[in-house]
Amino acid sequence: MAEQKFSLSVCVCVCVCVCVCMCVCVWAVRAMMCGCGRDDFQEELVIRPLHSGDIYASFQFRTVWETDFMRGNKVSHYRLFPKSLGQVISKFSVRELHISFTQGYWRTMQWGQPFQPSPPGAELWVWFQDSVTDVDGTWKELTNVLSGIFCASLNFIDSTNTVQPSASFKPLGIGNETDHRFLRYATLPREIVCTENLTPWKKLLPCGSKAGLAVLLKSEKLFHSSFHSQAVHIRPVCQDWQCKTTSWELRQTLNVVFDLHNSAQGKREWSLFKMFSRTLTEACPLASSSKIYIDITDNPQGEQFEVSPATPLLSQAVVLGDRRTFSVYDLTQQITFGTVRSLNLLIRWKSSDMLRPLLHAERYVAGYGLQTGEIHTLMYNNHPYRSFPVLLLDSVPWYLRLYIHTLTVTSKGKDNKPSYIHYQPSKDRLRPHLLEMLVQLPPNSVTEVTVQFERALLKWTEYTPDPNHGFYVGSSVISSLVPSIVAMDTNSTRERPLFSSFFPCKEESSYFVRVYTEPLLVNLPTPDFSMPYNVICLTCTVVAVGYGSLYNLLTRSFQIEEPSPGLAKRIANIIRKMRGVPPL
Amino acid sequence: MGLLSDPNRRRALISLLTRLNSPICVVCYMAGVAWFMGLAFEPFTLRTYMSENAMGSTMVEERFPAGERALTTGREFSAHKKKAGGMPVDWLVKTMQARGLEVFTQRFSRKLPFPDENKERYMVKGTNVYGILRAPRAPRTEALVLSAPCTPGDSNNQAVGLLLGLAQYFRNQIYWAKDIIFLVNEHDLIGMQAWLEGYHHTNTTGMDWSPLQGRGGSIQAALSLELSSDVITSMDLVLEGLNGQLPNLDLANLFYAFCQKIGVLCTIQGKLQRNDWDSVSGYSHSVQTMMLMVMKQASGRPWGDHGLFLRYHIEAASIKGINSFRQYKTDVTTIGRLLEGMYRKLNNLLERLHQSYFFYLMPSLSHFVSIGYYMPAFGLLAVILLLRALDLWVQLVSSPGVLSVLTPLVISHLTGVALYTLPIQFQEMAVEQFPVSETEAVVLTAIGYNVFLFIYIGWRVLKLVAVLYLAVLLGCTALINFSLGFILALTLVPVAAFVTPHVPKVLSAFILVILSPACTLLFSVFFFQELQELPVSFQEGWLLYLSVISQGILDHFLYGSLVYPLIALLVYPCWLLFWNILFWK
Fold first, then answer.
1. I want to staple B249 with a disulfide (CB 3.0 to 4.6 A). Which of A26, A405, B107, B357 is the partner?
2. Using one digit for the tens of pLDDT, what is the confidence trace for B367-390?
3. Which residues cross the membrane (chain B) (predicted)?
């Protein structure tokens, strides 16, 4: 044991030495690697105290690499970019890949908009290169490979839960190809996210969880929270404002919300240690920038809000249509860690107001009984005077048979005619329903979309092992350009905090928001599986014995038929007839 | 079946059945009653056991500490209730928000078809307040409900206090996998109906309610809490819901298991469990308990706020605290721990409660009678009808025209329709014309006319049709609500069996009236009071009877109970057919 400890400490020493060396050498290495493509790694943590007293921490790790996976000769030398993902990109000709694992539901009304929205469970959407001929086959293979990389049940993605949205999921990176034949989208609302998904995700980071912000990602704390979401986004981006060459961007994001009552005993007082049970001692040596942002916008008066240690650095960014002010801690500066060589941020606030989210949505199943039902989707536009259009995407499994003629869209009690509807009916056991529509939400209104459905009776082998739990219907996706209060920054190549540059912004007056509704749990008519043997025996007996003989009795008439008399009897009868006596 | 396909043997069998028809019928009737009475005998019943594995093997430790604080909250609630003169909505919203719940309100209003004199209400307006405890890292797909009614007067304040106390305690725990909805409903069942309809966005009874703002997905189970004193002697479990529907037996098992574990006295139908099953008094005790359950189930009304959940396939029960001045006392902390344990086990559920029985009777909390055991009792009664029908069929020489019985069938059903619609239509007129109260007016219009029909057709055909009709009717009723089917069979089967035009008219008419559905209800009222050890005089009983009828009609219009339409539209016309046979000329 002691020996191990010793060797471990030696290892750590060596590591640290190596890290320091690398820090020193980073410029040299960079200069050397210029020829075969520069790469760059940035890490960032945003902490936002929430109106409800909870606290929201959002990690972003960005690796950008000037390389071309699609070139004929294979890329074989990897430095910061994870090789496993690089090989996936080149093997499957992926142009864009977005995968997220989420445990919990983002409470928009309490927490505002998240930096990166994601639905409960797993979500995967991929744009393939237009050189791919068999998209469905490649998609199937890709999901199986990703399933291995992330230790998740992504192999359950098949044609019955994959759709090709026509408008809702446009490429986030550069590229003009928007033919949705090359897009695949699937969700697994039932996927449970836990440590085994976190570990492979952390391994993709250049520093792993050894140094930098990733030190804080300890599963015992991350899963002691109200919301946990981790994601990987790969997309091609411009290198500079001229956009002559492209590079690949890998963004790993992790969002977590800690609960006021469960984790902080009801006190609005948070520290890094309280949240993650770790403090920070250094930045990732491979990172070109490593920063912590603390949102202090909602608390302009100092007496209400306290951050220690204080920092002179302030930054302003326009994010989600609002100009926010942040305190910035630069971890690459030694001074940040102070004399104790460790950073344990402390945030204390009394109360704060929240900007009411302009767009939010909810969904539920109405009705009772196991035959029919109705899906209600409510979309709230809280803007006082501006209406804006939203794209609603619904992907419903085939075993809920939608009656599309019952589709109604109403806002403020009036019929609201969608300007665009894309509906693809389901095929039993092959593909789900896909419903996409463009709806204009009037200002300060609730728009209700209802559609009735019938619950199908499955074949007995198609039920899950726990059929009485119910069957999941994935979240609806609402994508929208929401009017912004302040002018948005449309220059995508300018140096900005990572959290404010995820969705590309084309106009100054509006910003892009994606809202997910809650998934639905629907009970289907379920046979009693607890006694299949009894049921089979009884049914067979009833059919064989009861039905058979009853049918016999009902359809035939029974009469006694005398056997034809023998010769002696016939003669005797003739004699009796002659005698005038009745025959035998 | 071989027996029936041989014409000789078939003939012999039929002649045997026709010859011995009456004795066999009598034997069947006796056997049916005896079987039913035997159900309460403990050696013939099964012990209850937990079928659901998710709730069975896992250990749960109860730690709810704050009973005293809950009582204080209850007193605060009572003060605010008094000040507000009803539901203290603002206070409840603030208190629930302070406990970290997402709080929503729902307004509702309902105009009753006629004034309810028992609860003195006609135009009902109210507000439900509910707070949702969001389970950490759960996607809002499943929920549990804990409800406490806000009743006028001094009762049930402790229940609301405990509900708020539990909300506070539950909020600080990390282990919840399902959202928990804490609901305080005003105007008991009407508020509950409004909330459930709002939650499921249905409108079955024409109530006005404002749409709900927050939901927690599909509700897996619900408990309704009624508690009116600081200390109690025992907890009573109420299972009977709308139309005689019962929750899954595992919910009762769960309650019983935790009462045993924590050491709380528990009762069902207000009756304690006894161990002396072999003594006469012990047996009569369990017969009483079972009969109370049968009477309550047959009434088809929800016997607690839980009763309305069952329609939505949500397993629910009411838990009532009883304080009967015994020595054994339980404080609120213990009840809180009981509920905590139950909710933690329900939280562990992976699937809806479905493993155990949905059709059962309980002669005590630890024993139950499943559908397989009680159905033969009804079957023995129903077979009498089939035997009589066979007898009549054999006696019919030529095959009769079915159309000939159409007239009496139509006329008796029209009177049934009249009985169904007139009480509500004419109650206003009756109140204006005569010095009677509203309730009496309704009831008197309902029972005021017994139409004498004289239609001249072959009585055998009519009786054959009537007997088969009754058999089908009772069979279907017993499948849905065994108790109702059994009680109706108990009274209507003898009538159906003996009525012919040749029996003494006056005596038979008297028996027919005595065994009519209306008189059955009257006897049931007295019998029920007797079982509850609250005997009433005839005068009080009559008043009670009238109010029971008006309650039945109200239950139908407010919650969609089916007993009143069943009696008025189907059973009463059927009885009229027999009346017709008696006076056939």
1. B357
2. 999 999 999 999 999 999 999 998
3. 20-41, 371-390, 402-422, 442-462, 468-499, 506-528, 562-584
